[in-house]
Amino acid sequence: MTASGAQLRTVLARPPIPPIETREELIDALGKAAQIEHAIMCQYLFAAMSIERTSAALGPEEAELARTFTLQTLAIARQEMEHLGIVTNLLIAVGAPPNFDRPNLPLQPDYYALDLPLALLPFGADFLALAERLEAPEPAPQPHEALPYFRSVAAIYDRLRDGLQRLGGPGGPLETTLFLGAKDPQVSNADFGTTPNQVWYSLTLLPVTDLPSAVAAIQLIRVQGEGATATDPDSHYAIVGRMKATWEALSPASRHALQKPVAANPMIRERGDVDPRVSCNVLRDPRAVALARLANRAYELLLLLLARLYGANDATAADRDMYRKYAFFPLMTIVVRPVGEILTELPAGDGAHCAICTFELDGPIRTYPDRVAFGIQLGERLTHLATGFAAVAAMPGVPARLAFVAKNMAYVRDRVLAYLNPPPPAPEVAP
Q1: Distances (CA, A) of 200 to 196, 268, 315, 328
Q2: How far apart are CA 286 and CA 283, in angstroms?
C-alpha cells in the first residue's frame, strides 16, 4: 500500500535527535565530535595566523596586544587539539579506529545538526562573535534533550555522556564489554614524560580505560570549553569574552593595525563540499598557491602520523615514538605554523588580500595498517615536501625565511629515512 495524497502533502516537524542506545551510534557520535574539535582547532589556528604582529605601524601597546591575542588564541587552539586527542582516546577505548577526517570549511549547513557557521575567519569582530557562540556556556551537564538540533557544542557532549552511561553503566547492555579497546594504544600526558593527569604545556590528555575515566574525559572537555560555571575565568568562553571586550574598546585605527589583510575562507581551488551560501576566496598568486598546497600536505601528513599513533596496528613502540616526535613538534612547530606566517607575506592574487593557510583536505585521512607500506609512503611524502619547499623558496619574491623551513624539512626527511632504512649490521670479524 502506498501513501495517500493527503499523507504525502502533510509536512511534519523535523524528527528529534535520539539518545545513543548502541555502540554503533556511540562511535558515530564520537566521530562527529572529533570532526567538530578538529574544525574548531583550525578556526583558532587560522585566526592566530591572521593577527599582525611585526608591522612597523604597530605602536608599543598595539604590539603587546597583538602578542597577547596571538598567545591566547593559540592556547585555545592547543586545548582544542587536546579535546580532539581525548575524543580519539574515547573512540579507541570503545573499540573504534581514530578519526582525523573533517569536512572542509566553511561547513555546509546542518552538517552536525548544529546551528553554528563554522568557517575560517580572520581575527576580529566576526571571529570573536563566532568563537563566543562556539564556547557558549551551558548549565551543569543535563540529560540529553530530544530536539531536532543541538543547542550548543556542550549539548553534543551531554548526549555522549548519557550514551556512555546508558551503555556501560550498571545494568547497561554493554556493562562488561563497552571498553573492549581500552588496552589499545592511546595518547596521554604520560607519553610526554609526565604523570597521566599532570598538566603538560597547558594540556591534560586523559587516558580512557573505563566508565569513570570516560565521564571524566567528557567533563574535562566541557569545563575547559564552556566552563564549570558561566563565570569560570579559565574557560575558553571567558578568555574569548575578555578578548572580545578588549577588541571592542580599541579605536578603529588600532583594530585595523592589528589585522593582516586576510580574506575569510581562502582556498586553493573551488570545492563542492563547502557551504554554497558562503563566499570563498580562491588564491591566485602562483607562489601562494604552491606554498599553501605544501602547507596542506604537511598538515595532512601530521594527521596521518597521528592516525598511526592511535589504536591497534602493527606499529612498534619505536615507531610510535617516532610518529609522536615528528607530528607534535617538527611538522607543527617548524613547518605548519611558520609557513602559515610566511604565506601572509605573499599576495593572494586578488588585488586586495594576502595569502594564508587554507587547511584544506583533499581526501579522507586513512589509517594505514601495514608499517612497511606506511614507512615507504612516509619517506615519499617527506621527500616531496622537502623538494617542494626548496622549489618554492627559490621563486622570486618569496620571503627568505622559507629557505630555513626547506632546510628543516630536509633534516626531518633525512632523520626519518635513516630510521626507516637503518644501515645493515657490520659483519662479524672472525677471531
Answers
A1: 10, 35, 25, 13
A2: 8
Are 23 and 168 contacting, i.e. CB atoms less than 8 angstroms apart? no
Instruction: Give the three-class secondary structure for 54.
Output: coil
**Percent helix, percent strand, percent coil in the chain, to nearest 5:** 50, 5, 45
Q: What is the DSSP code string of 220-275?
A: HHHHHHT-SSTT-TTSHHHHHHHHHHHHHHS-HHHHHHTB--BPSSEESS--SSS-
pTM over 0.85: yes
For the chain, the first-to-last Cα distance in angstroms comes to 91
pLDDT at residue 199 in the model: 52
Please, are residues 186 and 208 in contact by the beta-carbon 8 Å criterion? yes
pLDDT at 431: 66
Q: What pLDDT score was predicted for residue 70? A: 96
Mind listing the pLDDT tens digit for each residue in 266-286?
999 988 889 888 989 999 999
- Which stretches in the chain have pLDDT values below 50? 200
* CA gap 80, 47 in Å, rounded: 14
Measured between alpha carbons, how far is 124 from 107 in angstroms, rounded to an integer?
20
Measured CA to CA, the distance from residue 112 to residue 35 in angstroms comes to: 9
Instruction: List, in order of start, the domains of the chain with CATH numbers.
Output: 15-260 (1.20.1260.10), 285-421 (1.20.1260)
Q: What is the pLDDT of residue 19?
A: 94
- Residue 105 has what DSSP assignment? S
Please give the grid coordinates belonging to residue 216: 571524566
Q: How many residues does the chain have?
A: 431
